[in-house]
Amino acid sequence: MGSPPLFYNWSSKIIPWLGITTLVLLSLGIYWGLFVSPIDYKQGDVYRILYIHVPSAILGESIFIFMAICGFINVIWRAKISGMMLKAAAPIGMSFTLLVLVTGSVWGKPTWGTWWVWDARLTSTLILFFIYAALIGLHSTIEDKTKADRAVSILSIVGVAIIPVIKKSVDWWQTLHQPSTFTITSSPSMSPEMYLPLLICLLGFYMFFAFSLTLNLRNEVLDRERSKAWVKQNFNS
Amino acid sequence: MSNSIFGWLTIILRRDLLIAFRRSATYITPLIFFLIVVTFFPLALGPQESLLSSLAPGVIWIATLLASLLAVESIFSEDFRDGTLDNFFISLEPSFVLVFAKVLIHWLITGLPIMAASIIAAIVLYLPFDSFLPILLSLILGTSFMSLLGALGAALSLGKSAILSAIIVLPFSIPTLLMGTSVITSSINSQDYFGFLMIMGAMLAIGIPLLCLLTVEALLLNYD
Amino acid sequence: MLPNLKVENLSCVRSEKAIFENLNFDVFPGQNIEIIGSNGSGKTTLLRAILGLIRPENGTIRWLDDDNNFNEYRTYDCFYQGHQLGIKNLLTVFENLNLTHNAKGLKKEKIYKCLERVGLSNINDLASSLSVGQRKRISIARWLLKDFKIYFIDEPFSALDDEATNLIERLIIELNTEGCSFVMTGHRPSQVNASRIEI
Prior knowledge:
By secondary structure, chain A is mostly helical. Chain A is 77% helix and 0% strand.
C-alpha cells in the first residue's frame, strides 16, 4: 500500500464496495431515522436532524484525530502516503464540521430560539473549523507538495489538542447544548428505536468518509505522480 | 558554564538583545500598537465607565494577541536569510535550545513591554486596582504561550507573507484568549481565578517542549 | 591514515528529480575536495546533506570519532559557510565574531588574534559600514575561532578581489598543514590543491 501504483490498483478494487456499503447504510439509517423511528415527546419531529448532526459532529472530530495520526507518522517516518492522506482528509473533515455548525443552527432556532449561542461546545467546534481552514490554507501556500504535507502535519499535531476540549466542553462548562449522545461507559439514554438508526447513520458516515478519502487520495496520487511511467501507461492506452 | 548549553543560550540571547536594543523599533512597535488598539475602544464605544470596565478584559487580551503577532514574522526570518540559522543547526548544540532562546527573546521584546502597557490600559479602562495582579499573572503565562505559538507559525511561514503566520497562529490562540479573559473577569467579580491560571500554566508546560520540538522540525523543512 | 569523513552512495532527489546520484568520496585530514558544478546543480544541497540539514534519499555519511570508529553522527565541530555570510549589520566587527556559536567560551584575546590574522583593524565599527571585502574578512576570521577538522565552504572564491583570494588561498594551505580539510564548491576549479568532483 505504501507505493503509489500499488495503492492505485488496490483502491480501484475496493471503491465499488465502499460506495455500495455507504449507499446501503446511509439510505437505511436515514430512512429509518426520518420516517420510522418514533417522535420525540419534547421536541417533536425537529429532533430528527440529529441523524445528520450527531454523525457529522463525530466525523468532524474523528477525521481531525485521523489527520493528526497521519501527521505524526509523516513527521517521524516521512511516509509520503500518510502526508497525502492528511491532505486528502482535510477538506472532508472541514465539510463535516461546517455541516455540524449549519445543522446545529437549524436545530437551535426552533428549540433554543436562536441560530447561535456563544457557548463552549459551539465555540470550540467553530475553532475546529478555523483550524481546518488554517491547515488547508497553509498547504496551499507551499509550492512543494511534500514540504506542504510536512508543514501541515506539524500543525495538525498541535491542533489535535482542541479535540478533548470539544469533547469535554459539555461536561466542564454549563451550556445549553445537551450532553454527549454516545458514551462508551454507560448505556444510551435514548430508546433503542432512536438509537439504532443513529448508529447505522454513524457507520454510514464513516463509510462515506472512507469512500471519499479513497477517491481524494487517488486524485492526489495521480496528480503527484503525473510524470511517472505507470500513470502515463494507465492513461495513454 | 561556558561548555554547557547555558553558554550557548547566553550567546544567542546577548546577540539578539543587542541587535534589538540597537533597532528600537523592534520593542517599541508592539508597545505603541497595543496602546493604539486599546485607545480605539473608548473612542468607538463611548466613554461610559461601566461599559468600558466590563469590556476591559477582552479589550486587553485582543490587543495583546494582535500586538504579540506583530513581530512574529521576524523571529527567524533574518537569521534564515543571512545564513546564521544554517550554522546553528550544523553546530553540535541542541537546536531545541536555539528555538527556546528565540522564543524567550520574542517574549522579552513583545510580551514584557505589553505587560507594562497593560497596567496603563487597565487604568484608563477603569479596572479596579485589585485586578492588576491577575492581569499581570495571566499575561505572563499567556504572552509566553503566544510567543511559542508564534515561533511555530513563523517557522512554518518562513519566507512567505507575514499575514500567513498570523492566520496560522490565530485559531490556536483562542484557548489562551478564553482563559486569559476568564482570569480577569473572575477577579473583577471577586471569584476564584486560580483554576484558569493553572490551565494556562499547564498549556505552557506542555507547550514548551512540544512546540519547541515541532518548531525545530518546521524550521528544517525550509532547507529541503 | 583514516579519513575523517566517508560519503558512500549518496543520492538526493528533490521534487521527483535526482540532484546527484551515488556519490562516493572520503575526506582525509589535510586533503581538500572541490565540488564543481553549474548553478542549480545541487552543490549546496550536497553540503547540506552531508551536514545533516536535509535527509538524503540514499547513502550513508560516516564520521570518524575519537576511538577511530565510524559513526553516522558527528562528534566534533565542523565549520560551515553558506552563500550568505551571516553578518549582522547592527553588531560591530568584534561582536560579529564574539557572538557566534563557535565563539562559545573563547577569550577576548583569541578573537583579537583572529581578526588580526585576516587584517581587520577597525574592530569597533558597525558591520553596516563595511565594504563587501571587509565583510568577507569577518567571515574568514570565523574560520580561525576553533580547530575545526573539516571546513565546508560554499563558493569561497566568488566575487573576491585578488587580495582576498590570496588571503583565502594562504589560509587554506596553512590550515591544511595543521591537518584540516576543506570541502568547497565552485563554478570552476580554483588554484587550491584539491581533488575535484563534478556534479
